[in-house]
Amino acid sequence: MISAILLIGFGAYHILYFGSAMLSIPPGQTYHEKISYELVHERAKSLFFTVMYVVFLAVALYHATYGIRSSILEFTSGSRKGKVAVLVLAAIAILAFIYGCYAVIVTHLMAVGG
Amino acid sequence: LARRKPGRRSLLKTYPNLEGVVGWAGSIGFNLERYLYTLHRVTGYIMFIYLLLHVFVTSSRAFGPEAWAAAMGSLSGPLFHIGEFILFLVVLFHGANGIRLFLAELGLGLGRPARPVYPYRPAFRRLLPKVILYIILAIWVIFFALGYYDWFLLGV
Question: Any chain B CB within 8 A of the CB of A8?
Fold first, then answer.
């Protein structure tokens, strides 16, 4: 439940930040400008964005994995196959977290360093 | 001999009412909450797959501007635009319905517990949870319309 509340906050900020044709924070930048490499590089300098990305990723992966785990266990009723499926799911989530964190941290160090 | 855990086939013999995924699609009578529950799970799976793809694509920035340009170049075209809109609807539904489930889990709007006297009337059948449900659906429809206007009429 806590991860769901955090996700609603993070998700709303993420959507509002990247905006759309109608809405965009900060104003004056289009969606396409915001995802240009120059602005991505600029954002990577910010420690706030770096930490937010890591926490957002952790919360999203935890929430998703926990939710899917519930439905897997519901169908498999504690069988061995179900437990293996949950372990595979957890491994996928951990790998995605490591890869995502690597990208965020490397980009931050690149941006700050040069 | 070590006791073996029951497999799915033996579970189905013991509990013939164990319907699995089929139970999501059909329910006795029309039960809106049941379909919202199914949709909540389906949208959750879609978002998990999207999250993995999103992490993979956006991580290309760590490999320089060329890798980033190549990744962004692969995410264009009308099909991607429609997919993005569907994803918006999926996220919106999951979030809005999640707020409803959050309120229900805290017992907000469910009223006082009543004696289970036949014919049983679930707490969800009371007025306030129904109102909350329709507000959530209305929010989804309003954002659907706003999103459609934004995505396809204004152009991102």
Answer: yes
